[in-house]
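User: Modeling request: complex.
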Amino acid sequence: MPKRKRSAAESTDPAPDQAAINAIFRANFEAKFGAVDIEPVVKPTAPPKPSKAPKSSNNHSSDSLNLSDEDSDLSDSLSSSSSSSSDTADAVEVITYDFSRRGPAPTTKPSPRTFMSSKPPSSTTTSTAPPQKLSKSEQATETALLKNDLALKTLLAESHLLDSTLTHSTAKNRHKALESRILSLGGKPLKKGNIPMHIQKGMKAKQLLKTQKTIKEAKENGVIIDKESKRAKERRKNKERQDRRKGEGRDAGVGHASIGKFRGGELRLSRRDVAGMRA
Amino acid sequence: MMSSTPQTLTFTSSTSFRHRLVQATLTGKPIRITSIRSNSLTPGLLPHEVSFLRLLSSLTNGGVFQISETGTTLLYKPGLIGHTPSPNSATSSASKVIKHVISAESSTRGVTYFLEPTCILAPFSKSPFHVVFSGPGCVTASTEQDYSVDTFRTAILPLYSHFNIIAKLECRINKRSCSPGGGGEVTLQFGHQIRLPPTLHLRNPGRIKRIRGVSYTLGVSAGNNQRMIHAAREVLNQFINDIYIYSEVVSHAPATEGGKRGTPGFGMSLVATSSTDCIYSADWGSSTEVIRTPEEIGRGCALRLVEEIKKGGCVQRIGVKTVLSLMMMGSEDVGRIVIGKGVVEEEFVGHLRDWKAFGCGEVLVKEWSGSEGLAGAGMGGMDEGKLISLGVVGKGVGNVGRKVA
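Assistant: Request completed. Predicted assembly structure:
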């Protein structure tokens, strides 16, 4: 989140020409978004001095050059006094943002590799500006805000599970919520539903059939598709070998024992097998 | 006869010669260009244009080029894009490299004259492109008509990332050179071939976030770099603080044929990147005809960059043809880009008319009044009335040579 800071200079001491600038901004804003009938609150900076008013009235006749300046001063004090009366009723706080403020100059020289290599410069590389230091109280609020954001996000994501019509199955919903959270964190889904074994087998077989078909068609049409990775190939070969073993019944124990080696009428268990059974 | 061969399109004059040939190659339609400089004192094709035809014939397979005796008429029947090495060349790896030697007569144009159309063809090729440009006419610095190779690499090649063409792009300057004289060497690798470029929507120009640049000296004092950079920074420092201009020093210009030293010179290339990755660039260099000081070059280059940014829009002048060509070849969907009114020049309108002649889509031009509902809108209404929106319907021709996997 970009941190917007209130300009210290503007909020504390609105200069007389600041009022004129504000008027321009206001006119511009109203032209775009329609009229606004809220009087902006100007903070009473200096209490209107009682001695000032008679002095200005005295000067009116004599000093015409200073007239405009005094006028704006007068209107300024007027508006501040009027606003202070309505301050208690509905305080509208006007916050001014200072857009002209720029960040500090990048301290580290960008590495020439990002720009001067023979590759087109990538758009993602940015000169890293050091993060702005926050005060302790600001940091605390920042963490609190972040926490709230996170809570709101999870609530929004799981709100459909909290539907009043579905309250009868709370445990299921809780599991669903948990699963959605795991998924959002990049985990794997808990389970893929209860599919009967024979259907699962059919699905696997169909999947295999499909891949084989695409490979075959690609070969016939002379299209080169991506090679099977070395690991995937190894795994597939391994599986095939095991399947063959199972099918033939060679070396497999009585009733296809899943442990040890059946050779010469005896089931031989290695040290590891025994340890595995103990564990 | 008409049904068997596609109808030949006829164009006149030598304007936008390169792009017409590229369009013909991309769409696969034969063209005939007549009255090429028929009233000129040097009628017919110029050396650099002939050189471009040679490059095109090596980049494609089975193309037919017929030039009339006077050189004022050209018939071009395009072949398939993609280079097949000749069978009698020995090793396969070496023969995949296309070596394009540019003759000394065509050194008035920079090597980007050849690089730009090569890159437009490259995504639609059957095989990756690996082209080495060399010879006495190979000029890497900016010339009066062409931008420098630095600008090409930093401002034109990134445009392809809008179309998700990012992998295996490389443009290396092996030897720098100035016009005239040349003797430079540039390697271009374009290994990202696609089936169909995706539809592009570029509507938010954003605000400038950084400026980078290269200033180069060739056979002159390296101090000139500092002078150029200083002058450019004098202009640019008041706008933004993330500026970095690299300097490249080559102590001797590459030797020409007779063993003589090539033309010395210096120049600068500046690139401004916006928050939405839109790119504006400027380029200027020394010339043998006019004397310019390094300060003039630096300041002039910076001012040109500022001028280019002022024109606004998402695509600058030198990149707009590349973007439009890729959009025209894209899928049959409406893509939109927002460009500044200053970008639309006579040449650009001619380019669009050529696309129409080739049977590709028309362009819908609309006034662009600010960014509708786009967050972080550009200049906050400052550029109102300066921008137009181009709606381009792709033709879905895509890459003919590439098989569907």
